[in-house]
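Can anyone check this?
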Amino acid sequence: MKFTCVVSCQQYGIDKRSGSPLAQDILRLMKRYPSLRIAYIDEVEESGNDRQKKNIKVYYSCLVKVSDPHRALPLDQVIYRIKLPGPAILGVGKPENQNHAIIFTRGEGLQTVDMDQDNYMEEALKMRNLLQEFLKKHDGVQFPSILGLREHVFTGSVSSLAHFMVNRETSFATIGQRFLANPLKVRFHYGHSDVFDRLFHLTRGGVSKASKVVNLSEDIFAGFNATLREGNVTHHEYIQVGKARDAGLNQISMFEAKIASGNGEQALSRDVYRLGHHFDFFRMLSFYFSTVGYHFSALITVITVYAFLYGRLYLVLNGEGLSARKAIQDNKPLQVALASQSLVQIGFLMVLPMFMEISLERGYRAAVSEFILMQFQLAPMFFMFSLGTMSHYFGRTLLHGGAIPIYRSTGRGFVVFHVNFAENYRFYSRSHFVKGIELSIVLVVYEIFGHNYRSDVGYVLINISMWFMAGTWLFAPFLFNPSSFEWLKIVDGWNDWNIWIRNDGGIGIPPEKSWESWWEQEQQHLRYSGLWGIVVEILLSLRFFIYQYGLIYHLNITKRESNSFLIYGISWLVIFAIVFVMKIVSAWRRKLSAKSQSLIRIINGLIFLTFVPIVTLIALPHMSVQDIVIFVLAFVPTGWGMLQIAQALKPLVQVVGLWESVKTLARNYDMVMGLLLFTPVAFLSLFPFISDFQTRTLFNKWFSGDLQILSTLRGRRNARYSYNKRE
């Protein structure tokens, strides 16, 4: 009588008309629990008025219950039917799903329950005490409008990644939110099972906002809305609810990408602008740190790493004069700063809130043992990889906005399964793999020419931390992927990746089936970007030309004319010649593709036989092995920079007629990057103990045992198949 459960399922009407089994499952639930109510949005076509003879689509917000079996009525009976002014789905679905069902609720308290939420009987008995908090002025001035609850994440025993997420979410949902609520007074609604003052939010726009782009993180805007309208958000730790979190790296990265992109949109929203104007100075700083400031700090950390590396690269490539100065070599304060920041960069600082929370709840000894265990389970790699995810999506949203559908389904199912190589490459290519290869190239150049710094403590520290960052961004998706080092999985993944990267795109071909469709999708943020976003993108791409300008003067061929600008001009002539040849080849392919494939192969062979002898006779006699490495390190980043600028200026490149050449160059770069990533993983898969060590270290003993049994059965099945084939 006092509590009513309303399940908001906006697709129920569509599923019922189409005869979907999902509608039958919901109907079965209503039969089992007669007090259950289902709210959904119904779409009905009705005839228009006299002027408008064609049918129009009308939308209704409906509430249904199971009908009395003794009456001759449909199985589900409509209780209320409210006509809506138009289509209710404006954004991603969840906020509209909540807001349209509020009208069907009763009482003064309203609790939002997620699909991945659990509860306990002893905690449910405390709900009466929690509702009494609405009658108490917690700050002596106003009654609370949102009551925050503590969470207990119960999925930590699945894998090491799930364990890391549990510790991080526990620290945020307990000590973090408690401190944000009191004394900082900047706690908001974070999509958890908070209890709302129903009358307060019913008259102030609902429990979330639903705009498609700016309200990507739809839940926190309910807290913004309540605070702007003189509401009060509190946090209570004597009651908790169960919560499930993601257990796979891809699902965790999707969730973090959504949160980072949502924070980028918050920084551009008028809600944050108004809150910043209304808060006092100290509350404004607390508000900044607890929302967009965390992701902005992650972005600044990555930008600082790039600035430091490229500054060192300039000193190294400048020659012996500048880098040999004593003030640069014996800079003790800089070395002390590097020693401290390298520990932060490796990811130790991100573990500090978890360490404090475990110390408060379970004791100092448990916190120390938990910290040591997390280091053995590669926790620094996970947090460093998470830093790359947050900085990439937050920075891209700030630079180009979110005018594209960047909401990602976060896959809240029980997902611990093997992800093939092609899917990992599609998801992490631009956010991690490209940046990891860039850092590796900088460090290789630094290793070749940084002779004056090798005795410094700063050189050793920066090398360790930077190589750790680059290696984490390149290989963490494979280390945290179940069965990633099994040879059969490796072969299947390579075959899938080869088929995917060679497929051409087209209308209706999804990115999962074609490289071209994926590549076009990866550039959508540039299509909707403004003028300043394009300009900044081009300016950032100019950093790739530093390699060519600095390294071309370190070749043995150019030692005689080491200061001549003509050398740099000749290097650009070589690049333009390569682009011209690629343009001719792509034009011939388009012209002859319908006539003869053999003729295309003959032309490619002639071009190869023409250029290879010229390069062999002219360049190689004057070049050493180091010169060849320097040549590759100089021109490969230049080609990538030209590719990024061409993508930013896509309309202009299409007018000139070079877009097909750009597409061919991009495909070749992705092929090479995929090969560089795949080779170490394939080499390690040749040793069976690597896969066993990964399984036992990163997953719990029951899941590890199942994987061992599956591999044994697979081996027996393959052996039986080969034996029958021999017979």
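Reply from J.R.: I decoded it. Residues 719-727 have pLDDT under 50 and may be disordered.
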